[in-house]
Amino acid sequence: TMVAVELPRGQKTIRFVSELSIQPTIKLAAATDQPWTEQWSVTCSRIWRCGFNKSIAPIDHIKNGISSPSFFPWPGEQLEIQINRPEGVSGASSTVTNVNYTVTPGNRLLLANLSMKVRASQGGWQKITIPDGAELQKVNIDNNTVSIRPVGNVVTVPLKPGAQNIVLEWQQSWERKAFETAPPVDIGSDAVNVKTSISRGDDRWVLWAMGSPWGPAVLFWPRLLIMLLIAFGIGRIKGLPVKTYEWMILVIGLSQLPPIALIPIVFWFLVIRWRNESPLENPSMFNLAQLAIPFITIVALGVLYAAIHTNLLINIDMQVKGANSTNRIFRWYVDRSTSALPQPTILTISDWFWRIAMLLWAVWLVVRLYKWAPWAWGSFTTGGIWKSFSKKAIIPGPRPNVRIQNHESEE
User: Fold this and answer.
1) Which of 192, 188, 189 is nearest to 336 (CA)?
2) Tens digits of per-residue pLDDT, 39-77?
3) Quick one: the chain helix, strand, coil %, rounded to 5?
4) 210-255, pLDDT tens digit by residue?
5) Rounded CA gap, 153 and 182, in Å?
6) Which of 56, 129, 175, 362 is 20 to 30 A removed from 378 (C-alpha atoms)?
């Protein structure tokens, strides 16, 4: 195609813009036997892909930050441009992030809350499948309550282009049992940053937790095992009226207190044994020991009372750590999840099992105190309860030799 361009007198350059129809191949050829040179610059839009034959090498590739190959052909050289439109890659039009699925089991009902953030590139629907028998309580979109009636157990939530926060709340019938698993929920698409939480309830004793690797760990059992090993070692000490198995039973009742609480108990037994085997002859040291022993006894009895009070009246501390979990709420986290959310499980029983066991432990402790008390009193009174300070005896010295002379007067 030839274009006739009029160049007025005194004008050296002229620019014009033309359009070429989109074709699979466009061929450019430099003119021959013409008094000019040519420069070709090709810029493709984002929706097109341009390929070039290798007969002419581009002089420049980037122009103003945009890929725009430039060619300076010799007369008669040709450039072939292949043009094609890349096909779109199939994929989801929405992304689900920050999913929080929380369940609170009760004696008769289970309460559930599901919140998530959805980013959509176009309008559509998010189909969320809640558990069978669940009764939908509320649907909230961007802090606005909307009225949506589920079809069966599928809740269809409208989506608009952009980001929106969706919150669902429902309840369903529930019966407490040993293994409690989060009910199945399908959010309709894959998700990232998924958190699942289970509340244990006020009257449950959680024994174990199972789920994704990034979740809670019940550290009570490892700590109890370590304390039992320490009790076994203490039981090897001779001269104490406490057998090895009694030390192990004792630390079970002290397991709800910090491990340091065992020190006053052991120290009291060692002091009483020392008092029995090593009577002090010095009155000052003897009396000082007699004053210290009642104080140590009060501290040891205070620890035992604290253990009974904690075991019978305060919630059981199972030393739960990991994924921001607490002794009351167990949390699990996964970075990527399928549309079916994870279903972690906790092993719980009624806390009455612990209360009854600790009541029996308290009775056992009282019985053992009746056995240890005579041994402690006998050791405490060895050599007497108190030594008085005796006065220093005064020994008279030799009598002085005094001569008495009687003088009689003469009459």
Assistant:
1) 192
2) 888 888 878 888 888 778 888 888 777 788 888 888 888
3) 25, 30, 45
4) 999 899 999 999 999 999 999 999 999 998 999 999 999 999 999 9
5) 16
6) 362
